[in-house]
Specification:
alpha+beta, Beta-lactamase, three-stranded antiparallel β-sheet
Length: about 375
């Protein structure tokens, strides 16, 4: 991408407008956004609004909760360990999970299929297991709904798996991954199991695994994981606040229970570029594509949890989303495809292969999961002068 001050200025003006549109929404207190080209010839960062209710301004360096973008990090760590021979992607999850945690997680009717769920099923959201965070038990509320209604209350990993085993039911059997139409449905239980597997294989907390395998090699010095016994708790208090509509969502125990990951615009850009360039895999530029695919389209569900989880036309590989808007939905001026990951709080980490651009950011709203997909077309149109 050749440097062109005029084109670059037009792109920056367009991005400034996009950022202003984000914070103009009545349900958004602040936003942070950054774009960087692969060759480094173009870079833009912006932040607006108040990071916390005390008036602390949101800046381009303010840490924020990345939500499910941590699945991208988890999948990367799993693939790195698989490459080193420490685990087998096609082995049953029960080969790694302690029996008291893994047994009985996938029981349909009278058949326990837990031993048929593999590590690859977990990575690709094709296990069919119930989602401990989003699914509702019969006559009850989801964990997310309970937290929003009752306030902050953490839980243990054992309690999360017990909820799946005792109160929820699987959606479908573990899929035959040799079939192109294998069913995929987003499920947080899959990645809680993967985090547990990382800890079993490595013999240390997942946060330490992330740091040694991903954060340190990519120099993500401003990224950390909040967990029970979190040594970075003081750093977390300086991060941007989550919001639920117009009210601050202060739920530290809940976030620690979900291994909440905090990062910055610069660190998220470093993560994306490091993966795209294969820096964690010996400079192998094809490693990201091999890790990501094959992609399978999420089915659109009709249960209450489907309103929050990613659905059609989003596709999923192994810890990587792909969003390629069908021609039917964008017959004119169709935006190029993006890959990466988003979070339910309106966070995004997108790489656009056609333009070789990385887009990262957040609006920190607990119900803003669809926002990045609805907005990325506008963002890419603002970047059209760079094409």
């Amino acid at each position: 991408m050749m440097a062109d001050p005029t084109r670059h200025e037009r792109a920056r003006e367009g991005l400034d407008d996009c950022l202003e549109r984000l914070v103009a929404r009545p349900d958004v207190a602040h936003a942070a956004f950054a774009v960087r080209s692969g060759d480094g010839s173009f870079a833009w960062r912006g932040a607006l609004g108040e990071a916390r209710p005390d008036g602390m301004p949101m800046t381009v360096d303010t840490p924020y909760f990345v939500a499910s973008i941590d699945k991208l990090v988890t999948a990367t760590a799993v693939f790195l360990l698989a490459e080193r021979g420490s685990l087998d992607l096609d082995a049953p999850m029960l080969a790694y999970l302690p029996a008291k945690l893994g047994a009985g997680l996938h029981v349909m009717g009278d058949t326990d299929r837990s031993d048929r769920v593999t590590v690859r099923h977990l990575l690709s959201h094709t296990s069919g297991m119930a989602d401990y965070l989003e699914d509702r038990p019969k006559g009850g509320r989801s964990l997310v709904e309970e937290t929003l209604a009752q306030g902050d209350a953490g839980w243990s990993r054992e309690a999360a798996f017990a909820r799946v085993r005792e109160q929820l039911r699987p959606h479908y059997p573990p899929q035959d991954l040799t079939r192109p139409n294998a069913r995929a449905q987003y499920c947080d239980t899959n990645y809680l199991a993967l985090k547990t597997i990382l800890e079993v294989v490595e013999g240390r907390h997942a946060a330490a695994v992330y740091r040694s395998l991903v954060f340190e090699p990519l120099r993500m010095d401003a990224t950390w994981v909040a967990s029970h016994g979190d040594p970075q708790r003081e750093r977390t208090s300086a991060a941007a606040m989550l919001w639920a509509g117009t009210k601050p969502f202060d739920a530290p125990a809940t976030l620690r229970s979900t291994y909440a990951m905090y990062s910055t615009l610069d660190d998220q850009s470093a993560l994306l570029r490091g993966l795209v360039a294969g820096r964690l895999f010996g400079g192998d530029a094809g490693s990201f594509a091999r890790m990501a695919g094959p992609f399978r389209r999420f089915r659109q569900g009709f249960d209450p949890a489907a309103l929050r989880r990613p659905g059609w036309p989003i596709e999923y590989g192994h810890g990587v989303m792909r969003f390629d808007l069908p021609c039917l939905l964008a017959p004119f001026n169709r935006p190029p495809a993006v890959v990466g990951h988003t979070g339910s709080t309106g966070s995004w980490a997108f790489h656009c292969p056609a333009l070789d651009l990385d887009l990262v950011g957040t609006v920190d709203q607990v119900n803003a999961g669809p926002l990045p997909f609805r907005s990325v077309g506008r963002w890419l149109r603002a970047l059209a002068p760079l094409a």
